[in-house]
């Protein structure tokens, strides 16, 4: 018996040893290939993880600094633990990724979003992603977007009323929370048809949870010792993450349950023809007496079509829309306010456009009015160039590639740092200058298609980019119709905090004055 156990133990030890040798051999081969690409010195197994700066501001500055240090190289390599990443910080390198129909799987760094967002449109892959994309695309039909304009205008009106209390005092204040809470109310209304009243209830648990979970996820992404779930929950901030996640999911789950019950009652009382909203956005339908459909309503309608969605499927997409459609837009609008406010000549032109398009400041803009705000749109685009809401995009290469003359094996993560791509001097002369005229039609002609990618590019570009631009125009136009802004910070004061979303570390400090 002892001999049998001994033989089994030896066999097991040999098997483990062989497996470890094979794994090490594969990793060593990868290490030698990847390290031919220029990049900061890395250590085996831990890579560059021990070199990462601890704070989000310093970490973002570090990564951006590497991009500048190796700007002459076609791409840059670095490691998080045993995982190699290559950074494509030129439009020409990024083209390999964005022009391909194959490299569409999100990187492993998105796996840490799964507990929150599941595998919805942002994080899913393969057939599930294709099905969801096909299903959700019609919900951003321009006629449905125009219906959302009521929510944009209503919440912007609340924001202006709040800001008016700060106007004319001569006091400096942080405008960031005002814009953020307005964007949160807008996304709750458009995504879930549920008023959060965040602008009136600034101490909301949900509001705090949104920000905290982003910080927790980013810390885990760059800390390979926290990648294991048991380790994270036992020795890391895993318990805080779970509690934060519970707050977020409880809120969206309760709203989905309530609206689903209303939907079922309406489904029983109406003919099936009334539920063709996904195929025909012109059909006048509503849930629970609402005259305007929310994103959740349209998912519920889609759930009775050919594509059957479970409540879990619907929650994935609602949570994804809440994340992608709130913090990103709020950050972009705040950066735009700072940049416009710190350039008096640009602000004067914005005011002139507001007065021309909307002579009555109390009037709510229509879709035609927003389309006429062409200079404001150029300001928004230029602000997104300098401070893109999503500072990085990451994909997993689906096959071996040659990028910029270097071999990059299948399975490696390719990072596109939007912040650096938008500062490439080959495409953006005097790149740090805020110049909205870069986006005049005559100045945009012939520009490389991947030199400007605030909403990503290719088949996995942001499905809600028209929604985002429309919302930003509504928010910013409401501010500049009523107020003149003076900024009290310099560009260097607004240290970019690069977590999941790019935000200024200390907010945006301004003085506000009512326009005559």
Outline of the structure:
With 516 residues, this protein is of the alpha+beta class.
- Rounded to the nearest angstrom, the distance between the terminal CA atoms is 96 Å
Ranges where pLDDT stays below 50 over 5 or more residues in a row are 272-284
Q: Identify the CATH class.
A: Mainly Alpha
Structural class: alpha+beta
What's the total number of strands? 12
Per the principal axes of the C-alpha atoms, what is the gross shape? globular
Q: Percent helix among the residues? A: 40-55%
CATH architecture: Orthogonal Bundle
How many separate domains make up the residues? 1
Stated plainly, the CATH topology is called Cytochrome p450
Radius of gyration from CA coordinates: 25 Å
Strand order of the largest sheet: 1-2-8-5-3
The fraction of residues assigned to DSSP E strands is: 5-15%
What is the fourth-level CATH superfamily?
A: Cytochrome P450
What does the oligomeric state look like here?
single chain
Total of DSSP H or I helical runs spanning 4+ residues: 19
The description of the largest β-sheet is: 5 strands, mixed
**Mean pLDDT value:** 85
Could you explain how this protein is built, in words?
The chain is of the alpha+beta class and 516 residues long. 51% of the residues lie in helices and 9% in strands. The chain has 19 helices and twelve strands. It has helices at residues 2-34, 56-69, 91-98, 114-117, 126-136, 142-164, 176-192, 205-221, 229-235, 238-269, 295-302, 311-324, 327-341, 344-357, 367-372, 374-386, 418-421, 441-444, 465-482; strands at 76-80, 83-87, 105-106, 173-174, 392-396, 401-403, 406-408, 413-417, 483-487, 496-498, 502-504, 509-514. Strand 1 (76-80) and strand 2 form a beta hairpin. The termini are far apart. Residues 272-284 have low confidence and may be disordered.
């Amino acid at each position: 018996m002892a001999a049998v156990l001994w033989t089994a133990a030896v066999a097991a030890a040999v098997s483990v040893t062989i497996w470890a040798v094979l794994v090490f051999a594969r990793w060593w081969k990868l290490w030698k290939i990847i390290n031919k690409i220029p990049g900061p010195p890395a250590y085996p197994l831990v890579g560059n993880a021990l070199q990462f700066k601890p704070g989000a501001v310093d970490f973002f500055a570090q990564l951006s600094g590497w991009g500048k240090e190796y700007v002459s190289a076609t791409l840059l390599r670095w490691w998080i633990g045993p995982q190699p990443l290559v950074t494509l910080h030129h439009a020409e390198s990024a083209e390999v990724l964005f022009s391909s129909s194959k490299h569409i799987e999100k990187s492993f760094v998105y796996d840490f979003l799964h507990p929150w967002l599941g595998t919805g449109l942002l994080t899913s892959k393969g057939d599930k992603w294709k099905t969801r994309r096909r299903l959700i695309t019609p919900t951003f039909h321009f006629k449905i977007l125009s219906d959302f304009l009521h929510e944009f205008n209503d919440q912007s009106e609340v924001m202006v009323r709040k800001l008016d209390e700060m106007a004319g005092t001569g006091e400096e204040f942080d405008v960031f929370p005002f814009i953020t809470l307005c964007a949160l109310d807008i996304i709750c209304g458009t995504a879930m048809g549920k008023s959060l009243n965040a602008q009136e209830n600034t101490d909301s648990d949900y509001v705090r949870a949104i920000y905290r979970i982003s910080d927790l996820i980013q810390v885990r992404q760059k800390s390979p010792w926290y990648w294991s779930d048991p380790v994270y929950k036992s020795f890391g901030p895993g318990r805080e993450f779970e509690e934060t996640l519970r707050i977020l999911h409880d809120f969206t789950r309760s709203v989905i349950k309530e609206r689903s019950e209303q939907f079922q009652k309406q489904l029983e009382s109406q003919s099936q023809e009334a539920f063709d909203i996904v195929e025909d956005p012109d059909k006048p339908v509503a849930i629970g007496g609402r005259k305007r459909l929310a994103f959740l309503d349209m998912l519920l309608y889609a759930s009775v079509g050919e594509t059957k969605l479970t409540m879990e499927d619907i929650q994935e997409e609602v949570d994804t829309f809440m994340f992608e459609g709130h913090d990103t837009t709020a950050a972009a609008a705040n950066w735009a306010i700072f940049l416009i406010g710190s350039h008096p000549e640009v602000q004067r032109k914005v005011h002139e456009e507001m007065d021309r398009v909307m002579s009555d400041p109390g009037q709510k803009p229509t879709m035609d009015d927003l389309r006429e705000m062409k200079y404001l749109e150029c300001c928004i685009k230029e602000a997104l160039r300098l401070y893109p809401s999503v500072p990085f995009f990451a994909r997993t290469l689906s096959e071996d590639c040659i990028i910029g003359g270097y071999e990059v094996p299948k399975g490696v993560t390719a990072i596109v740092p939007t912040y650096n791509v938008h500062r490439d001097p080959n495409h953006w002369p005097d790149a740090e200058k805020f110049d909205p005229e870069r986006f005049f039609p005559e100045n945009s002609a012939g520009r490389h298609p991947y030199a400007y990618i605030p909403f990503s590019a290719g088949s996995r570009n942001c499905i809600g980019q028209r929604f985002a631009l429309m919302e930003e125009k509504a928010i910013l136009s409401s501010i500049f119709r009523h107020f003149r802004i003076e900024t009290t910070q310099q560009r260097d004061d607004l240290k970019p905090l690069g977590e999941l979303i790019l935000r200024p570390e200390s907010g945006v400090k301004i003085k506000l004055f009512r326009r005559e």
